[in-house]
Amino acid sequence: MSKLNFCELRPRFGVALAALALAGCVSSGAQISLRDVQEPVAAADAARGRAVVMGRDGNCLLCHAIPETGARFMGDLGPVLSGIGARMSPAQLRSRLIDSTSANADSIMPAYARTEGLTQVGQPWRGKPILSAQQIEDVVAYLVSLR
Description:
globular, Cytochrome Bc1 Complex, Chain D, domain 2
């Protein structure tokens, strides 16, 4: 299976899927796996990624803890992210950020880049990703640094 370039795919994902479905190229059970998003789509910056993780853009600390950050409030709903860079590859981290259900269908972590098939999304956010491709790459760079 060829690797997907998320930066090229994201703006046209819904249109391409609709076109394929109309053309009869996609069966009703077909799945496009975002697990194949292996390669970075932009130059990453771990410091910017840390800002996304710690700030309102990513809001990661609502569910996750990263004790070494010294943040005052951290969640305990998701796994502790200390050492995550040693436990997961950049591709695995990227895949989970794009759409965590790619690894666990029952995940309650938000899909930070997927926009199709979501329910209970506020009107201002419908059809818009939570994070840009650049922000996702920056977060991956930061998480990889947590060893």
